[in-house]
Amino acid sequence: MAEITNPPAPLPDGAVPEHEVARTERHWFVIMATMLAIMMAVIVVTGITHALNPPSNVETIDPTTLHLGGEFAESNLGTAAEPDGSVTVRIVAQQYGFVPDCAQVPVDTPIKFRLTSADVIHGFLLPSTNVNTMVMPGFVAEVRTRFTRPGIYNMPCHEFCGEGHHGMWARVSVIDKDKFPKLAAAERTSCAKH
Ligand code: CUA
User: Fold this and answer.
1) Cα–Cα distance between 70 and 4 in angstroms, integer?
2) Which domain holds residue 102?
3) Do residues 147 and 107 both lie within one domain?
4) Are residues 67 and 97 part of one domain?
């Protein structure tokens, strides 16, 4: 039988011995440090391999006069082909929708999305791509991407913007490269025919 020497004074009810507290703290520290290391690694790996990085475009615009003219006037929204073969898509986000609510773009082409908000902060996300940005009133958000496959990409607003946030969706329809130039300007901002 082991001899008990110098028995510790009994702790008050509910108190945890010091060495157990220290051990628990060490465990949590290791768990937190591991989580941090994993998250940092994910950021670095996706940043390098998927071109996922925070949009760094700083460009201001007056949100109260968007509709009066300039780049984000209604007639200028949607998809526009650029002389260099790239495509620019201009979209206004507002409670609770995107204007236009669908844009057609060609596959395998440099695409530049330019967005701004007419009211509050919205979000713009294309799942499975590197497109993910906040859309803030007063600023133009710019994201560049290239779609490798045709198809419909849903773009949910992912920034809580009010009661109708959950219903704020739009779509990007990626179509064959040779079909794109044949579309009339009006069809590029509507996906009715596809
Ligand atoms: Cu717009 Cu959420």
Assistant:
1) 86
2) 63-188
3) yes
4) yes
Decide whether any atom of ligand 1 lies within 6 Å of the 122 Cβ: yes
| Residue 169 CA, ligand 1 centroid: distance in Å | 8
The pTM of this model reads 0.71
77 shares its domain with 168? yes
Q: Is the CB of 161 under 6 A from ligand 1?
A: yes
* pLDDT lower than 70: segments of the chain: 1-4, 8, 52-56, 184-189, 192-194
Distance 171 CA to ligand 1 centre (A): 14
pLDDT digits (tens, 9 = 90+) for 126-158: 888 888 889 888 889 898 899 998 989 998 899
* Ligand 1 atom closest to Cα of residue 156: 2
